[in-house]
């Protein structure tokens, strides 16, 4: 009698059955989006900043002044040249030579950063009412940075929508010209008609 196909053979039971072949793979954890991973990095950076304070600041103690200090602290890592009033390149978007004016965080970067940290604060259990990132003082600070940088760099910060609006205005203008020409032709035709 051949016993090789005996299902009670110990070696067979040590091998688990092969996994069923299915077309859809088991759901792997989705990789974080660029925004989500940036938000996580920002949150960790801010947490580290609070820990490094002397004395360390807990998240529950954190208020808008800590956030403002954090934003000013970040300026030392900035890469955006913001000309001082005395600089000859003040107000020039594309200066022809280097100058000694300080590098700072661009307003747009700070604005986006605050948005991410504001969301992260509430995701970590913070109350929207006490969210230091949503404080009016932060909005005022960001607006001041925006206006200051717009003047110093000669770059007005406009929303992308404006471009579209200008195009529409131009289009409208063209149509106005066409209509005027049409009216003009019409008038000429009327004038050409025998009285
Ligand atoms: Zn300068």
Protein topology:
Layout: H1 10-14, H2 34-51, H3 64-74, E1 80-81, E2 103-104, H4 107-123, H5 136-153, H6 161-192
Antiparallel strand pairs: 1-2
Helix pairs in contact: 2-4, 4-5
Zinc ion (ZN) binds at residues 83, 87, 89, 99, 101.
Largest sheet: 2 strands, antiparallel
Query: What's the helix count?
Result: 6
The distinct ligands, each listed once, are: zinc ion
Number of discrete domains: 1
C-alpha geometry = extended
Low-confidence stretches: 3-13, 162-191
SS-based structural class? mainly alpha
Describe the strand arrangement of the main beta sheet, using strand numbers. Answer: 1-2
Gyration radius, to the nearest Å? 32 Å
Oligomer: single chain
Order of helices and strands: HHHEEHHH
Mean pLDDT: 80
Q: Which range does the strand content fall in?
A: under 5%
Number of strands: 2
Quote the distance from N terminus to C terminus: 124 Å
Percent helix range: 40-55%
Subcellular location: Nucleus
Pfam families: ALOG_dom (PF04852)
Biased composition (Low complexity): 186-195
Region (Disordered): 1-37, 153-195
Provide a descriptive summary of the structure in words.
52% of the residues lie in helices and 2% in strands. It is mostly helical. The protein has one domain. A two-stranded antiparallel ribbon has the order 1-2. Helix 2 crosses helix 4 and helix 4 runs antiparallel to helix 5. Bound molecules: zinc ion. Zinc ion binds at residues 83, 87, 89, 99, 101.
Features:
195 residues, mainly alpha, two-stranded antiparallel sheet, 6 helices, 2% strand, binds zinc ion
């Amino acid at each position: 009698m051949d016993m090789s196909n005996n299902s009670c053979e110990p070696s067979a039971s040590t091998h688990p059955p092969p996994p069923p072949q299915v077309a859809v793979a088991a759901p792997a954890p989705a990789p974080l989006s660029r925004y989500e991973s940036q938000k996580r990095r920002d949150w960790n950076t801010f947490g580290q900043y609070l820990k490094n304070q002397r004395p360390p600041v807990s998240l529950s103690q954190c208020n808008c002044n800590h956030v403002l200090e954090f934003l000013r602290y970040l300026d030392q890592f900035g890469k955006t040249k913001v000309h001082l009033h005395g600089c000859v390149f003040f107000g020039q978007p594309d200066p022809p030579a280097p100058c000694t004016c300080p590098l700072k965080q661009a307003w747009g970067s700070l604005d986006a950063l605050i948005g991410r940290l504001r969301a992260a604060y509430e995701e970590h259990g913070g109350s929207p009412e006490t969210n230091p990132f949503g404080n009016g003082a932060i909005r005022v600070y960001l607006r001041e940075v925006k206006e200051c940088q717009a003047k110093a760099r000669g770059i007005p910060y406009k929303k992308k929508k404006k471009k579209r609006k200008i195009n529409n205005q131009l289009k409208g203008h063209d149509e106005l010209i066409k209509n005027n020409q049409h009216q003009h032709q019409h008038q000429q035709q009327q004038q050409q008609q025998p009285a």
